[in-house]
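Dear colleagues,

As part of the handover before I leave the project, I'm documenting each prediction I ran so the next person doesn't have to rerun anything. This entry is a single chain, and its sequence is reproduced below.
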Amino acid sequence: MTPNNTTPFTLVLFGAAGDLARRRLVPSLYALWCDGALPEHWQLLGVSRSARTSDEWRAELVDALEGEVADDFLARVGYVSADATDPQALGTLRERLEGQRCIFYLATRADLYAGITRALDEAALVSDQSRIVLEKPIGLDYASAEAIETSVRGCFDERQIFRIDHYLGKETVQNLLVLRFANSIFESQWNHRYIDHIQITIAESGSVAGRGAFYDEVGALRDMVQNHLLQLLCMTAMEPPNTLDADAVRDEKVKVLRALRPMEATSIAEEVVRGQYTAGANGEAGYTEDAGVRESATETFVAMRVAIDNWRWAGVPFYLRTGKRLPERTCEIVVHFRPVPHSIFPQQRASMANRLVFRLQPDEGIQLSFSEKRPGAAMDIRMSELSLNPQTLRRERAPDAYERLLSDVIQDNQTLFVRHDELMAAWDWVDPILQNWRDSGVRPEPYRAGTWGPSAATMLLARDGRLWDERETDDAPDG
């Protein structure tokens, strides 16, 4: 049986008392229910060690959801206090879940994944119709990721495992595929002949306060680059799949990861910038204060120059950047096209070359920058920006990324989820950078909270005669 939006299911949410469940997962499930996108028969069962009743958890969810929450939705919600790694504790759920199509969502720390999946298996809760959803980051390096994967894959088949990266559920990322593969005018120019370079930025204005214990073990490379940034790179650089089938799409993404030029000691020193924020000019706390540690070598900022060694992208650098405590929260993929080979207009500069911007947050959309003549007698050239989807997101509410991905899990569609070989290929590329940092003992470069990172990040592009795409902000550094 192929699941669809009429097939009953039970969502068993581990880590139900956590922030992710309260802020993102349950609100997204509720939005799907309000939109009529769920089957007639379904239920949500929260599982956590925290002692509370189903009524108490429902009350917490009401506070997290916007507006008046329908009683019919809450009637489908229950809670069980249990140690999710204890097979005996989970065995008490057997009668409640027997014969049902269960989706086990692990909104917990990744180091609990192996224990939870083994407990589910030993409690006889895993069946052919079961599905499991794993949040990132899966592991802290290649070896730990492989250990987790071995445990999970020992209880679930690959077709049952959904490794979620919520950036892939964003409307603009999906629109990137449509823009490329449904429009010959873009795909024909999507190569080294016409593209000068591509920048991908995920900037966060917030700090690590409240997540210090987690973040000090993980850092920006594991938390953002190994998954989010590499996934966005794959979606941007992949070859056209022969179909929109899940494996066809993921086959092409794996090819991109395997074509990434390996990072060696010399290239890491020259092409990877690592930073950690310090106190800001406006009184913002530094990282060690936010994280609650005396000192730390954990990076809160990473910028890098990446090469893809294949025919399409030969010679085209990809610049990746992410960080905490930057001037604004934004996520963009910016495609910089090459300037015209010879301009007949004296006012036209190389910096006026076409740009295609895919903005994922805070406001989703796609904009094309191009040169045009100002009105008047003179041949005065200016840059203009054209929105390529001005009505798409205004006409109706765009679903949240978690809404889209939860719906895909319910319908058993793995297209926007990470496959095992994809995950391991990403770790295989990232691991040498982590090892180099450990071996060298070089500490992250400091940067002031509220700026765009260390000066070395600016120089990373300046050496190539380029600049980062940044909006003008009062507190941004000169560089």
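Confidence is low (pLDDT under 50) at residues 472-479. DSSP finds 17 helices and 15 strands in the chain.

All the best with the project,
I.
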